[in-house]
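Bumping my old thread because nobody answered last time. Still need a sequence for this structure:
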């Protein structure tokens, strides 16, 4: 599947910097990743952000009459505006005219549109938003899910998140045998509330994952786990905190570099190291979060995303398509249903 040209529908009207930064990131992805980008939104606004002599061979503008504002109630918004850019983008995937959707707009609206337009994968009760975090071990990220789709989770939802996260971690992040943890307040099996204890038991009994126990807050970025599952309330707090810590650390590095000529020389010497630090810590380098469990590839980017983040979100979408994440998750649940039947 990786040999074909992947088509990415991009919500060009979604985000704080739309459409200029969205278009810029999409055009870079077209050049560097070889994807076809379908820019969904107001044609006049999109065209005004395109370079004057652009080759339109791998770019298509798909008209949309409206957009969902960040302060709108997501479900009512997508129902009142069927021709909003996020709805049109999801329809392109539903109609097989695109392989994936990327949006930096209203995350709740993106999730609602995905559920209504694409539907859930068979066997999945609730979709989950999975975010990739850096860890203390270089080149060994950890996938956290859910980070915002479900405020409350039943134990079986967490079990499903673990299976989906393991598939993604194995086939996209390249981890042969992903180690799964349950975010909790202690290492012991009996720690946490009743839902956590029951979730622990389900995860331990699931033969399709490699569950190694509870993960405390200090374990999240340790590199000991490849996948950590939690409810969306806890996961979203964790996500926002990690983003803030990354920004603080980058700011500290900038402030502590020497000033003047010595600083310029030192910065020049350290430039490769500083670039690697930024790549590991800056959330923009990861592009966005994957909505797992819906019948289509959907990447939800941060509302403040600029061109580099959009580029990385498209790269993430392409990797999910190339590695057949949907088919692999569906195959797992078809096997489960066959065995239970």
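Sorry it took so long. Here it is:
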């Amino acid at each position: 599947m990786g040999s074909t040209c992947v088509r990415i529908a991009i919500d060009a009207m979604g985000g704080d910097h739309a459409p200029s930064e969205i278009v810029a990131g999409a055009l870079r992805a077209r050049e560097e990743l070889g994807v076809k980008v379908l820019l969904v939104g107001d044609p006049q606004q999109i065209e005004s952000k395109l370079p004057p002599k652009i080759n339109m061979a791998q770019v298509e503008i798909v008209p949309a009459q409206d957009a969902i504002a960040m302060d709108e109630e997501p479900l009512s918004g997508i129902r009142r505006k069927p021709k909003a850019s996020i709805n049109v983008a999801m329809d392109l995937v539903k109609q097989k005219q695109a392989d994936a959707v990327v949006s930096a707009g209203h995350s709740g609206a993106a999730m609602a549109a995905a559920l209504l337009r694409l539907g859930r994968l068979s066997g999945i009760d609730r979709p989950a938003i999975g975010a990739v975090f850096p860890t203390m071990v270089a080149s060994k990220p950890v996938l956290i899910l859910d980070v915002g789709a479900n405020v409350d989770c039943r134990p079986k939802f967490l079990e499903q998140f673990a299976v989906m996260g393991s598939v993604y971690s194995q086939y996209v992040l390249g981890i042969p045998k992903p180690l799964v943890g349950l975010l909790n307040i202690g290492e012991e099996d009996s720690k946490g509330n009743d839902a956590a204890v029951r979730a622990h038991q389900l995860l331990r009994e699931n033969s399709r994952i490699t569950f190694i126990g509870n993960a405390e807050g200090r374990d999240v970025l340790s590199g000991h786990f490849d996948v950590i599952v939690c409810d969306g309330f806890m996961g979203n707090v964790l996500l926002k905190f990690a983003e803030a810590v990354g920004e603080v650390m980058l700011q500290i590095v900038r402030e502590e570099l020497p000033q003047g000529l010595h600083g310029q020389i030192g910065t020049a010497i350290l430039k490769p190291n500083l670039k690697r630090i930024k790549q590991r810590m800056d959330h923009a380098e990861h592009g966005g979060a994957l909505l797992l469990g819906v019948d289509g590839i959907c990447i939800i980017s941060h509302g403040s995303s600029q061109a580099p983040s959009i580029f990385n979100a498209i790269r993430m979408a392409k990797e999910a398509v190339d590695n057949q994440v949907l088919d692999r998750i569906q195959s797992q649940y078809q096997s489960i249903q066959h065995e239970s039947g």
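The chain has a mean pLDDT of 87. Let me know if any region looks off to you.
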